[in-house]
Specification:
The complex is a heterotrimer. Chain A is α/β, with parallel strands linked by helices. Chain A is built from ten helices and ten strands. In chain A, helix 6 links the parallel strand 7 (194-198) and strand 8. The radius of gyration of chain A is 21 Å and the shape is globular. Chain A starts with 29 loop residues before the first strand and ends with a helix. Chain B is mainly α. Chain B has one domain (2-150, 234-291). Helix content of chain B is 69%, strand content 3%. Chain B contains 13 helices and two strands; from the N terminus they run αααααββαααααααα. In chain B, strands 1-2 form a two-stranded antiparallel ribbon. Residues 1-7 and 273-292 of chain B have low confidence and may be disordered. Chain C is of the alpha/beta class. Chain C has three domains: 1-79 and 166-231, 3-Layer(aba) Sandwich (Rossmann fold); 101-163, no CATH class; 249-288, no CATH class. The model of chain C has no long low-confidence stretch (mean pLDDT 93). The termini of chain C are far apart. The longest helix of chain C is centred in the middle third of the chain and has 18 residues, at 179-196. The chains are: A alpha/beta, B mainly alpha, C alpha/beta.
Chain lengths: 315, 292, 288
């Protein structure tokens, strides 16, 4: 991440924010090839009781600066896949390369982890510090960043996430959405090129969900950070550049949100749903209305219906 | 809400005492406690009380907060005083029914009780003016020499600070699990002791499961943030001694010298007016000088 | 005549009394639950929902006001509150975190045994409850911890159902489940009302879920009960709901936008099916 002195605003994102997205895109940031991972269950005598293949022959590539979403129901292998990207899990077969580094290269472990930071599901269980700013400092401290620079990084990260006013607060007094923003700030302070968000909103209320997704989008758009969002909430992925859908450990679909959401029936078979507006559009289309495929939100649906109604002369 | 409780009872204020380096406070408290233990002498107690009251005034912590710390040991305090009064043999002062109170008994009771009070209030002042984080950092620093003999100082400090963060969360969780089991008809009150203990199994099992899950998650989150032990780690807020601390150490040395002098010679050399003055200044020990 | 199962009568409660940081969690809340109703309860985090539901089965005593169950005051000194908790079942958020027994069957037996059912009645009730939540026979002897997240949650719900509650209160029963798990669980809960006649009070963050399921909707905001009406009526107050940090279901927004654009649709509809029908009627029916 480039250091941006002028960016000290408390707001995350905004319309006048400079977009770095067009500069991103060349090369490959993340390359997963033929990845396979198995959980081995053992009984009390340590005999192998069964093997569950959590990730089965998955290959995908992510370009730097992209906003990627990985969708799948609980147990589809999406979280297992995510944990390979910052070397918490090691592949049984295949390779994972992050920014040119093989995750199995033990020498580069810390480099990999600070290049691809990770935010987890439970907001309570990933905050280490007893005070917000101390928690944000935890990563840089581990990396051996000099004290003066840690202070700068803590301030910068908390301001980007709009949590600077809470720097002296105890994490226990924050809302779920605020706690997740502190966790993201903790990763940002490590100056990563990529953030993996592993179901960051599963335990939050709608307001908290909105805060976290907005923060992730802002980081992608204004800081150019590659975002990999793991989720099962469909509404959260409509702004992604590419959506991957996993089922039974396998990669089943990939494409733009529009491409993926036009395959409503297949998604339903994979125990997923589509956003409400998409579902309504799909139902209306089934009933004979002339609507385009893969409508993503209510604005698009209303527009399409107005067009449809005008051509029919009904309004 | 249970989460609102603050562990370590920090009282936020901006005072000289608050701003002292935690190491200074730790060393000071330790020296203060040891001095209290070595000398069993009313002059020392008076001096200690005077010293403590001055520090409390400097700290801007209201007296009632400091005194709150006595609540948990109130029973122990009364117990000590009563046992000493009743069972120490010596010159009888007066007797009620079969119980005789002796001069030595009263002396012993006052000395033990006074010492206990000074002890608790002193360490309270430290925890009230130092955040748990700074306290842990201070301990880690002071224990550094122990690394040479293989004590995992960094790990102990890390464990302490994680415990401080998670205790309120686990307390809230206990409350929630207890309520959930009550909603399933559990009864934590009736029955004999054995039955009562058994009735807590449905609370303890989920609590342990949850604690392990949290520990697991936390370990993963720490790893993901490049944690690899204390090696090569820098600090966001390193401890730095300032001139303030030098002054504090100087005062501490003077205090210790005074205590030593008082403990050793004062009882023999002191003039009556000096005795009185000390007795007055240390209001806690007023009664003690009268006894003597 | 309507039968009131439960009456909440001017409930008030504050946290942190005497600490100088007192916070009112409930402020004069009154409502009734009628037999066989499905009532939704919405409100943003911290609006007092959780405090409220804990008072309905006497886990938390209100500062003032009381609750009547079948006409009796549940905070009376001699009232049998343990029996009450069997009749007014409460399923907490993430209820799988309270499991502790060695087998699913023993887990589900815990509740009925506690409220004094004999062994045979307990086992029959447990069996029926496990079946009722849609779990298969082979899970009976498995440790609950070995099951998947969705199954664990079902076990936890069964463990309350086994006490044969007449009212079932669920605090965000679908939180954290994936879309399909969510739908399965919600349709199971709907069946409890339809097939077993259990009165249901469901706390939810999803406007779509309560729009689909509830007969009546209660809205809480800063400790006060601000709406208590049919879902369609409640969701017509879109602006007020948004001020409280809530929203209307997606369908309401779509229909309002269409109405504003000149379509002859009914903007008071809240479910996907109704929205589809009104749009189709407007788009394919007789031209005006």
């Amino acid at each position: 991440m480039k250091k941006k002195k002028e960016k000290k605003s408390e707001k995350t994102g905004g319309n006048n924010a400079v977009s770095k997205k067009e500069t991103a895109g060349a090369g490959v940031f993340l390359d997963i090839s033929g990845l396979r991972y198995e959980y081995i269950r053992r009984d009390e005598e340590n005999n192998v009781e069964g093997i569950t293949t959590a990730v089965d022959d998955v290959s995908l590539k992510v370009r730097p600066g992209q906003f990627i979403a990985i969708l799948g129901h609980n147990g589809s292998g999406k979280s297992t896949l995510a944990k390979h990207i910052n070397a918490i899990l090691m592949p049984a077969e295949g390779t994972v390369t992050v920014d040119g580094m093989d995750t199995q290269d033990a020498e580069r472990l810390l480099d990999i982890r600070r290049t691809a930071g990770m935010v987890f599901q439970n907001p309570d269980n990933q905050i280490i510090g007893q005070v917000v700013d101390e928690d944000v400092a935890f990563g840089p401290e581990n990396m051996g960043v000099p004290t003066k620079e840690i202070e700068e990084r803590v301030e910068e990260s908390l301001k980007i996430l709009g949590m600077w006013n809470y720097r002296d607060a105890s994490p226990n007094r924050l809302s779920g959405g605020q706690k997740q923003r502190v966790s993201i700030a903790g990763v940002i302070a490590m100056h990563p090129k990529c953030i993996i968000l592993d179901e960051p909103t599963a335990m939050l209320d709608p307001k908290g969900r909105y805060e976290v997704i907005r923060a992730a989008r802002a980081l992608n758009e204004t800081e150019g950070i590659t975002i990999i969002l793991i989720t099962h909430y469909m509404e959260e992925v409509i702004h992604a550049d590419t959506v991957f859908v996993m089922d039974g450990g396998k990669l089943k679909m990939s494409g733009s949100p529009r491409e993926v959401f036009s395959r409503v029936e297949e998604l339903k078979e994979m125990r997923l749903a589509v956003p409400q507006a998409t579902e309504l559009a799909w139902e209306l289309k089934k009933a004979g209305l002339d609507l385009p495929d893969g409508i993503l939100d209510r604005k698009e649906l209303v527009k399409a219906l107005i067009k449809c109604g005008r051509s029919d002369g009904r309004i | 809400m249970i989460r609102d409780i603050t562990l370590g009872q920090y009282y936020a204020a901006d005072s000289v005492i608050h701003r002292l380096d935690p190491r200074t406070k730790l060393v000071g408290t330790l020296a203060y406690l040891i001095a209290l233990f070595i000398f069993n002498n009313p002059y020392v107690f008076a001096l200690a009380a005077f010293f403590l009251i001055t520090l409390i005034l400097l700290s801007h912590v209201p007296f009632r907060f400091i005194l709150k710390g006595l609540k948990p040991i109130l029973f122990l305090l009364l117990f000590t005083v009563i046992i000493n009064m009743l069972f120490v043999k010596g010159t009888p002062l007066f007797s009620i029914w079969k119980i005789t109170v002796t001069e030595e008994g009263v002396k012993q009771a006052v000395s033990m009780g006074g010492r206990l009070i000074l002890l608790i209030l002193g360490s309270n002042l430290m925890t009230l003016t130092t955040t748990p984080t700074r306290l842990t950092a201070g301990m880690e620093h002071l224990m550094r020499p122990l690394k040479l003999i293989g004590v995992p100082v960094h790990e102990i400090a890390m464990m302490m600070s994680i415990a401080l963060r998670f205790i309120p969360i686990l307390m809230e969780e206990t409350d929630r699990i207890m309520k959930a089991q009550l909603a399933r008809g559990a009864d934590f009150e009736s029955g004999n002791l054995f039955k009562k203990i058994r009735s807590f199994v449905p609370v303890l099992v989920p609590l342990f499961v949850s604690a392990f899950r949290r520990a697991n998650d936390l370990a993963m989150a720490m790893e993901a943030r490049c944690y690899h032990g204390g090696k090569g780690r820098t600090q966001y807020r390193p401890l730095r001694y300032t001139r303030r601390d030098a002054v504090a150490y100087l005062i501490l040395i003077l205090y210790l010298a005074a205590v030593f002098a008082a403990g050793k010679w004062l009882s023999e050399l002191a003039t009556p007016w000096f005795k009185e003055m000390i007795g007055y200044a240390g209001s806690v020990s007023v009664s003690m000088s009268e006894v003597y | 005549m309507e039968e009131y199962k439960l009456i909440a009568d001017h409930l008030t409660y504050s946290y942190g009394k005497g600490s100088g940081r007192e916070r009112k969690a409930l402020d004069d809340v009154s409502f009734v639950l009628r037999k066989g109703e499905f009532v939704g309860l919405i409100g943003h985090t911290g609006s007092g929902k959780s405090t409220l539901v804990q008072q309905l089965n006497a886990l938390l005593k209100p500062d003032s006001g009381t609750v009547f169950f079948e006409g009796a005051d549940i905070f009376e000194k001699d009232y049998d509150r343990k029996a009450l908790r069997g009749k007014v079942g409460l399923v907490f958020q993430y209820p799988e975190h309270q499991l502790f027994e060695e087998t699913v069957f023993a887990e589900v037996c815990y509740g009925p045994k506690n409220i004094g059912m004999d062994r045979k009645a307990t086992e029959l009730a447990a069996y029926a409850a496990i079946k009722r939540v849609g779990l298969e026979d082979e899970v009976f002897d498995q440790p609950p911890f070995d099951l998947s997240g969705g199954q664990k949650r079902r076990v936890a719900i069964a463990s309350v159902l086994a006490m044969k509650p007449e009212i079932l209160i669920l605090d965000e029963p679908a939180a954290g489940l994936d879309p399909a798990g969510r739908m399965d669980l919600l349709s199971m809960i709907r069946e409890l009302k339809e097939k077993e006649g259990i009165t249901i009070l469901m706390v939810s963050h999803s406007m779509e879920d309560v729009a689909e399921m509830a007969d009546r909707l209660m809205v809480m905001d800063r400790g006060k009960l601000v709406f208590d009406d049919s879902p369609a009526k409640v969701f017509s107050h879109v602006e007020e709901l948004e001020e409280m940090g809530l929203a209307a279901p997606e369908m309401t927004y779509i229909l309002r936008d269409l109405k504003a654009a000149g379509f002859d649709v009914d903007p008071s509809l809240i479910t996907l099916k109704d929205a589809r029908d009104t749009i189709l009627r407007c788009m394919t029916g007789e031209k005006a």
